[in-house]
Amino acid sequence: EEVDRQLCRDAIFPIPVACDAPCPKDCVLSTWSTWSSCSHTCSGKTTEGKQIRARSILAYAGEEGGIRCPNSSALQEVRSCNEHPCTVYHWQTGPWGQCIEDTSVSSFNTTTTWNGEASCSVGMQTRKVICVRVNVGQVGPKKCPESLRPETVRPCLLPCKKDCIVTPYSDWTSCPSSCKEGDSSIRKQSRHRVIIQLPANGGRDCTEPLYEEKACDAPQVCQSYRWKTHKWRRCQLVPWSVQQDSPGAQEGCGPGRQARAITCRKQDGGQAGIHECLQYAGPVPALTQACQIPCQDDCQLTSWSKFSSCNGDCGAVRTRKRTLVGKSKKKEKCKNSHLYPLIETQYCPCDKYNAQPVGNWSDCILPEGKVEVLLGMKVQGDIKECGQGYRYQAMACYDQNGRLVETSRCNSHGYIEEACIIPCPSDCKLSEWSNWSRCSKSCGSGVKVRSKWLREKPYNGGRPCPKLDHVNQAQVYEVVPCHSDCNQYLWVTEPWSICKVTFVNMRENCGEGVQTRKVRCMQNTADGPSEHVEDYLCDPEEMPLGSRVCKLPCPEDCVISEWGPWTRCVLPCNQSSFRQRSADPIRQPADEGRSCPNAVEKEPCNLNKNCYHYDYNVTDWSTCQLSEKAVCGNGIKTRMLDCVRSDGKSVDLKYCEELGLEKNWQMNTSCMVECPVNCQLSDWSPWSECSQTCGLTGKMIRRRTVTQPFQGDGRPCPSLMDQSKPCPVKPCYQWQYGQWSPCQVQEAQCGEGTRTRNVSCIVSDGSADDFSKVVDEEFCADIELIIDGNKNMVLEETCTEPCPGDCYLKDWSSWSLCQLTCVNGEDLGFGGIQVRSRAVIIQELENQHLCPEQMLETKSCDDGHCYEYKWMASAWKGSSRTVWCQRSDGINVTGGCLVMSQPDADRSCNPPCSQPHSYCSETKTCHCEEGYTEVMSSNSTLEQCTLIPVVVIPTVEDKRGDVKTSRAVHPTQPSSNPAGRGRTWFLQPFGPDGRLKTWVYGVAAGAFVLLIFIVSMIYLACKKPKKPQRRQNNRLKPLTLAYDGDADM
């Protein structure tokens, strides 16, 4: 832009330079090109830096009087550059080594802090220094100047040594304090310690064991003790005043109490202290019991005799007896063996026991206190609970009669142990960082990336990989903004060659032709383009032309210079504005020469062609950049400004800066990288109480909780948060009623009477499937006498023995299953009902009006299930099959299925199919067997089965000239065809349903067509022809039909 000249008064005025203007007939040369970049960076014996510049001939001289063009050597100039000598030999240093303690220097009396770490002594660092020759390699040190040799040793500060420090051992775990009979396992006790400081900087390593165990001292031999009971003393009456807490008369009979003495004995019968039995012999036997002093009307019996001896067999029984005394022998009620049994039997004590495993295996449980620790150091929440553990299965002990007994009888401590392995977690493993990629843009602002790749996937609950890409490869990457100098690589052109005229006018030496030049991509430096690089590094859209059409002016014609640069378009781009360039005349034309053309060229400013708008843009945010050595926490994300042309191409920032555009973007922002926090768990809780007090299915459970959920890429929490272990099996003892005795009517055959039952001690395994077995009442001695939740025992009740012809009620049925109100398998929430009933037995129908009504009882329940019911049927066997109702849980039941949808269980025909060769079909109609046809009566019932005529077709062995049809002599006798003589076809027109078969209709249709054909032929044969045939030589040959034995005839 031209301004007032006064503004340039302080500037240096350009000095005029002398120049030669060629005359009309002189040779015209271009101006000198700029000097090329130097060929070498230094000069030596074999290398010398050179620069070249050149000019070209723009027009040749005329034939007469003009100055001639110089030869080709005068069109190029060379000059020296970079004349300083090359350094052939130089020192090369390696990296500094590790800091090693220097014993010649005394240690510090105090510690100092250096680089954030405590330092205790001075050390030395060394590095390798070698003499190197350029493009050759290492040579002897004498070739390099000693005065420039770098130092090879330097002092350094050593961080303090850190020895391994461990805690003292914990106390030994306790050994069993008491002996356990039948427990033969080896007991061990253990202790452990943990590392509280890991070794560093050459300190003493952790070599001492962190876990020790030893066998417990041999447990004391268990001395067996037992309670010895003595005879019951005489029954003592309890005064009525004591029983009722009120004064009363003195009683002489009735209920009382009797006592007995107990002592403690060793197994061999020797005396022992009471405290021994209290500790080892189990519960104390009862010291008192209820007894009865008979009154005058009571039944009196002798005491029970001793049990008879056992013969040693495990399945044998022993008995004891008692007898009625005095007048009781004559009383009818005393003769009731159910109320007053005179003999009692029980199984002999059995010493044969059988141990069996029951239930499932427990979870794999590690031994207490034995935990594999990362790096030997216990870090909260980073404990790997893995390694060898044990799993347990409960053992049950049964006697010879299949009754469950204490596991100690089988010399078992109640479990089977089996070693198991809990696999250790393995974390995701990634590679080291890759090198940074190239900047995503060769011009302007972009991003560069580096990444880590998956080496090993995590397993067994190890720390997960950050993420997976499309090929299932874990990839962690970092992205940072980068800026590429748009002038980093430039297209450099050499001067245009002389215009080579294609149609040379030898006389004139002028005309149109072609010019060429070399175009190369060069790396730009502060000293200018220096090194040739690959063409792809330069912008291909900006690549200059390497050839062009040219015009070599003829002698005496006007010669103009190269076009100057285009002027800038005025922004914003608009086609109404123009840009222009100009050229200057170098040689004026002669009188007869071609005059100079217009030296100014204009073109409109078109957007994105020769005119561009510019605007700022920003790159994507980088990944969160942390401080050095940090792996998580607060960081910074950055991005960069980019100048973008209106056609979307990034250009140098100067284009936007020249326009003074606003920069409203924030280039930095804070960010957070979530620190990986491993899942932290609490310690295992103590084992819970057993879920069942007895039986086979009891379990103990222990749990742990999440004290710190995992975050980021930390190790996730395991799924196993509770462990279960079977309880030792214990027999279930309880009281149970025996069966009611038959109804006993005093001095009569029928009517009102009484019936009795006993109470027995039974043992079971606690499951619903186990049939309880009666055992000695001693096993229930510590159990309160309660049956079905009721303490009041009902051992006797009135009953009715029906007289002949009477109606009577049966006993109550058992309670039904809990029945819910369900629709489509869903409970409506009304609760459940259980029902039981007493059936009415009617012996004579004429007494029906005197019978009581059937009795029903209901009670509410809440443990029912919604079931679906459907009919099931077996395959047919003859005319019958089995049909039953099945519940959705697979159990066959009575009731539940809809009666109206019940499938048929019988398909017999009515009336039955009694005709010979007939059978009852699935449709409950009578049909004939194969080879017979039905003869039906007028009421559509089968009358008889008639044998179908048989067509015998001769085979190869039995070729005959005709076909014989054999008729059945007797319809009930089968045809007697010799085997192998021919094939037999049965023509049966009726199907199994009694309808005509399809082929019968086909045959009828064929017969009808054949009949029409025959009638037509007869008609044509009888019709008088219009013109009789005169030619006798062309007689029609008669058609001869012959049978050749083919079945298709």
Helix and strand arrangement:
Blueprint: E1 28-29, E2 49-54, E3 57-59, E4 76-81, E5 89-93, E6 100-101, E7 112-114, E8 117-126, E9 129-133, E10 137-139, E11 153-159, E12 165-166, E13 188-192, E14 195-197, E15 211-215, E16 225-229, E17 236-237, H1 240-244, E18 254-259, E19 262-266, E20 271-272, H2 274-280, E21 288-293, E22 317-321, E23 343-347, E24 353-358, E25 387-399, E26 404-405, E27 415-422, E28 429-430, E29 444-456, E30 475-484, E31 489-493, E32 500-501, E33 511-516, E34 519-525, E35 528-532, E36 547-552, E37 559-560, E38 578-582, E39 585-587, E40 600-604, E41 614-618, E42 633-638, E43 641-645, E44 650-651, H3 654-658, E45 668-673, E46 680-681, E47 699-703, E48 706-708, E49 722-726, E50 732-737, E51 751-756, E52 759-764, E53 773-775, E54 796-801, E55 808-809, E56 819-823, E57 826-838, E58 840-841, E59 855-861, E60 869-873, E61 883-887, E62 892-893, E63 918-920, E64 926-928, E65 932-936, E66 942-947, E67 950-954, E68 965-966, E69 982-986, H4 998-1022
Antiparallel strand pairs: 1-3, 2-4, 5-9, 6-8, 7-8, 8-11, 9-10, 12-14, 13-15, 16-19, 17-18, 18-21, 19-20, 22-23, 24-25, 25-26, 25-27, 28-29, 29-30, 31-34, 32-33, 33-36, 34-35, 37-39, 38-40, 41-43, 42-45, 43-44, 46-48, 47-49, 50-52, 51-54, 52-53, 55-58, 56-57, 57-59, 60-61, 61-62, 63-64, 65-66, ...
